[in-house]
Amino acid sequence: MEFVHTCYRITDPERSVAFYEALGLEMRRELPIREEATNYFLGIPGKPGPELELTHNFGVGSYELGTAYGHIALTVENMAEMLERLAAQGIEPERPPYTIREGGSQICFVRDPDNYRIELIEH
């Protein structure tokens, strides 16, 4: 068994793809779904998977995130550099980086254009 992908529904493919590319993911491919939608697959450079699938259903302007969704997490080499790079593109963290416990990894959350939470963990 292997984990292949996770999927979000998005409202603006250009903004969403730009956001995830700003985090360091790379666009892999687009897959049209009849006349209904387009899937955009992104992944970590140099790694075949898992991938993030962004689904744009035509004619849908918004989604409710619900109460069950938490977040996805990505590791970053240098939190300060990542946040500086994101700030240059207008992406701000929910709050400054912090640790959960003494000696733990520094973490920080950002939100994508559709309000999905992304946890950044300094590796």
Q: Got a strand count? A: 8
Helix content: 10-25%
Task: Please give the CATH architecture.
Answer: Roll
Bin the strand percentage: 35-45%
Gap between N and C termini: 26 Å
Order of helices and strands: EHEEEEHEEE
Which runs of at least 5 residues are low in confidence (pLDDT < 50)?
none
In brief, what are we looking at here?
The chain is α/β, with parallel strands linked by helices.
Question: Could you walk me through the main structural features you see in this protein, from its secondary elements to its overall organization?
Answer:
- The strands form 2 sheets. This protein has a 4-stranded mixed β-sheet with strand order 1-4-3-2. Strands 5-8-7-6 form a 4-stranded mixed β-sheet, with no helix packed on it.
- The radius of gyration is 15 Å and the shape is globular.
- The model has no long low-confidence stretch (mean pLDDT 93).
- By secondary structure, it is an alpha/beta fold.
- It has 2 helices and 8 strands.
- It has one domain (5-61, 70-122): 2,3-Dihydroxybiphenyl 1,2-Dioxygenase, domain 1 (Roll).
Layout of helices and strands, plus pairs?
Elements: E1 5-10, H1 13-22, E2 26-33, E3 37-43, E4 51-57, E5 72-76, H2 79-87, E6 98-99, E7 106-111, E8 117-122
